[in-house]
Amino acid sequence: xxGHSKWATTKHKKAVIDAKRSKLFAKLIKxxxxxxxxxxxxxxxxxxxxxxxxxxxxxxxxxxxxxRAVKRGSGLEAGAAEYETIMYEGYGPGGVAMLIExxxxxxxxxxxxxxxxxxxxxxxxADPGSVxxxxxxxxxxxxxxxxxxxxxxxxxxxxxxxxxxINDLGEAFELLSxxxxxxxxxxxxxxxxxxYEQAExxxxxxxxxxxxxxxxxxxxxxxxxxxDSDDVQNVFANFDAPDDxxxxxxx
Length: 251
Fold this sequence. Notes:
By secondary structure, the chain is of the alpha+beta class. The chain is built from 9 helices and 10 strands. The two termini are 21 Å apart. It has 3 domains: 3-73, Integrase, N-terminal zinc-binding domain (Arc Repressor Mutant, subunit A), CATH 1.10.10.200; 84-133 and 208-250, YebC, transcriptional regulation domain (Alpha-Beta Plaits), CATH 3.30.70.980; 135-205, Alpha-Beta Plaits (2-Layer Sandwich), CATH 3.30.70. It has helices at 3-17, 21-39, 47-58, 63-73, 107-120, 151-158, 182-191, 213-227, 243-250; strands spanning 84-91, 97-104, 124-126, 135-144, 163-168, 172-178, 198-205, 209-210, 232-237, 239-240. α2 (21-39) runs antiparallel to α3 (47-58). The longest helix is centred in the N-terminal third of the chain and has 19 residues, at 21-39.
C-alpha cells in the first residue's frame, strides 16, 4: 500500500482546518464549474458534477457557493471563466515522478508558477511523456471506516460493478477500478447503503519509489509549494513512504 495514497486521501480533511481552506474551496468550486459546463447542471444526468459536488460538500464548502458554481458553469449565471486542463510532468527530490494537473484560465501563468515551485524545491520540469507512463488513469472511490463497512462488504457490493482492487489505507478503504467504471462502482456502494467519502478519476502510480524521511519531507514541501498555486488542482507522485516515515516527515 502506497504511503502516498494514504497521504493523498487524508490531506483534504486536514486542509479544511488549516490556512489553506480558502484555496481548497476555490479549487473545488472550479471543479464544479467545469463539470457543469461540460455536462450540464443536472446532477442526475451528470455524474462528474455529482461527484464534484459531493467532494465539495464533504469538505464543508457552503451550499450557496456550490449552487452558484453550478449556475455559472451551466450558463444560468454570469461570471464563469474559460478554464483548460493542462498536465505538467516533473521530477521531485530523489527522482520522485510527478504529474501536476492544472485547471487554469491563463496557461502562461500556470506554467511559470509550476516551474518556479519545482526549481525552488529540488524539482525539475520534465518533457511530456517522460513521467506519465509511470501512472495509470484509474477510478477511485474512498470509503471511510467510520461508515462501518468492511472490506468484504465493499467487495460484495462493488465486484460486479468493476472494482479491481481494494486497499486498506488505515482510516479508509480505497476502491480502484478502470476510469470508465468509477460511476458504476460508486453507485454500487451507494446502493448497498454505504456512505462514501469521495469518488473521482485519478492517476495511480504503477511504479513506486520508497523514500526516507528526508526525501519524503522534501517531497511534501514541494507538493505544498505546487498546490499553493491557484492553477494547480492536483499533484500525483510515486513516492512510497512507510507509515512511520510519513508521520515523521509530516511533523
